[in-house]
Q: What sequence folds into this?
């Protein structure tokens, strides 16, 4: 029996993100939390959602959570698998993806993301993996959802590097650069759901997860947080949502733990 | 016409000091055995191209073979960071390397432009992205028909491409299936290519006509190395050795541990060990 009273902040984050996806979406999925959320959506309210991973797998339906964007499971369950140049040219650049789902190491209030370096680019304190597909996902998908855990060093006043462009300095900055897509429209953290202000594009808390306070959200964020005038409480996970997520994760652990080479 | 030869011969004949080389394979079919042979032969001052450098480039860089790396995502997939590559960039150990960084879209387009014989790739990319401020090879071009400003990057034209594939025929035609990545483009963009394969069959007469086949005359060398993609996987042969990727995070965290591991598992080993490494991963 699923115990509904003790869900974790991470589970709430994944489930809140899953709820934002619909059956009609064509979603470009990043690894980690976005991947879990997209698959929970597929296994609950959005069975016909099209999930695309940048390895070229289109319309994939994995039974366990992939460890990388190119696990065999993704290809075996996909409607089709295309080459990587085709993925980026025909499918992403061609405007066929409605939602890009990204994680972030560092983010600012306008949804600009850094996954490249901490410190100066040429003399980095920490060299992170880099952008991969993100710079073009951020500008070619119809809109972008972001999911990450809140922490002062992750949610910062000023990011060290613009790996992928969100709303830049805010307002109509995307438009001024000739970018025609919406950019980040949703930020889901382990504590809250955020949406950009329609004018300034600054991310604003629209919903806090159960049991949280404004102070707690401010403590884990490096900029002065704005809260919506109509602040809501995120509905807690339903039994179906939580059971689906936990079963998916249990299957994943079993599958990935089982095989080892000699 | 492709030569069927040993891995030692194929590397010795095709890869020279100072070459620009691409090892491709997207999460599966990563040519680990070939990279290990390159390390054993101790090539110097290589320029390495790869979308996702991962473990093999961590090893090539950590062993001091590279002077430059051109890449778009430097991570240990599903695990974390590339510790040897970081140590080279952050601390110049064992030597300083130049890092030229792109996005995946740019790298894929650059291979495709190389395969198409074009000098550069044109695509809608890098808008608002910081990489164009730190990489002088990212420029822009105006569409002569619409006036739209687009990104341009130089085509990849490696001296050599190394890939791993499922099968080759006796005359050297190559089949790649599953996640096909950017291997076909990498081979066609390169002057020479070495393909390691799981098996060599008489001919491809019974195959589906659209399977990804590189005709024998586009391939320089074909080498039979069963298990040659380990710890990555080969679709329909063996699965990914996830434990090895996790172990690499520990091995690569320490210079001495790394050096000892490379001696035991690469320098003092040969391509024949790969077949035994995938036992237990076969379906």
A:
């Amino acid at each position: 029996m699923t115990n509904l009273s003790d869900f974790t902040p991470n589970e709430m984050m994944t489930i809140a993100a899953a709820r934002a996806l619909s059956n009609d979406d064509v979603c470009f999925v990043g690894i980690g939390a976005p991947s879990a959320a997209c698959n929970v959506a597929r296994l609950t309210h959005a069975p016909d959602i099209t999930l695309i991973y940048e390895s070229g797998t289109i319309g994939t339906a994995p039974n366990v959570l992939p460890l990388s964007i190119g696990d065999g499971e993704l290809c075996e369950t996909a409607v089709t698998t295309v080459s990587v140049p085709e993925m980026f040219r025909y499918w992403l650049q061609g405007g066929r993806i409605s939602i890009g789902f990204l994680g972030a190491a560092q983010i600012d209030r306008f949804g600009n993301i850094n996954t490249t370096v901490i410190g100066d680019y040429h003399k980095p304190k920490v060299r992170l993996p880099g952008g991969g597909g993100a710079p073009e996902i951020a500008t070619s998908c119809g809109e972008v959802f972001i999911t990450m855990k809140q922490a002062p060093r992750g949610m910062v006043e000023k990011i060290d590097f613009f790996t992928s462009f969100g709303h830049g300095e805010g307002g109509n900055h995307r438009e001024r650069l000739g970018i025609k897509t919406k950019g980040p429209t949703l930020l889901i953290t382990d504590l809250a759901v955020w949406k950009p202000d329609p004018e300034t594009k600054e991310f604003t808390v629209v919903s806090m997860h159960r049991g949280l306070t404004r102070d707690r959200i401010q403590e884990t964020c490096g900029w002065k947080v704005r809260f919506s005038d109509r602040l809501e409480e995120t509905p807690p996970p339903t039994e179906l949502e939580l059971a689906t997520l936990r079963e998916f994760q249990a299957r994943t652990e079993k599958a990935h733990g089982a095989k080892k080479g000699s | 016409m492709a030569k069927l030869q040993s891995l030692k011969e194929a590397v010795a004949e095709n890869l020279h000091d100072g070459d620009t080389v691409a090892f491709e394979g997207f999460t599966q079919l990563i040519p680990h055995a070939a990279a290990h042979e390159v390390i054993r032969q101790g090539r110097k001052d290589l320029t390495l191209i790869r979308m996702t450098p991962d473990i093999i480039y961590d090893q090539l860089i950590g062993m001091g073979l590279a002077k430059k790396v051109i890449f778009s995502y430097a991570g240990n997939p599903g695990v974390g960071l590339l510790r040897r590559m970081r140590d080279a960039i952050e601390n110049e150990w064992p030597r300083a390397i130049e890092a030229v960084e792109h996005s995946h879209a740019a790298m894929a387009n650059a291979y495709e432009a190389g395969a198409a014989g074009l000098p550069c790739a044109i695509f809608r990319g890098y808008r608002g992205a910081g990489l164009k401020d730190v990489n002088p090879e990212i420029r822009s071009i105006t569409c002569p028909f619409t006036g739209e400003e687009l990104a341009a990057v130089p085509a990849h034209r490696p001296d050599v491409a190394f890939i791993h594939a499922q099968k080759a025929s006796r005359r050297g035609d190559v089949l790649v299936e599953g996640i096909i990545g950017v291997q076909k483009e990498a081979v066609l963009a390169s002057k020479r290519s070495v393909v390691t394969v799981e098996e060599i069959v008489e001919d491809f007469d019974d195959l589906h006509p659209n399977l990804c086949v590189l005709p024998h005359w586009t391939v320089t060398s074909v080498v039979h190395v069963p298990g040659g993609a380990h710890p990555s996987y080969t679709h329909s042969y063996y699965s990914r050795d996830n434990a090895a990727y996790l172990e690499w995070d520990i091995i690569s965290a320490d210079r001495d541990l790394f050096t000892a591991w490379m001696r035991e598992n690469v320098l003092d080993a040969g391509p024949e060990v790969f077949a035994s490494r995938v036992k237990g991963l076969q379906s």
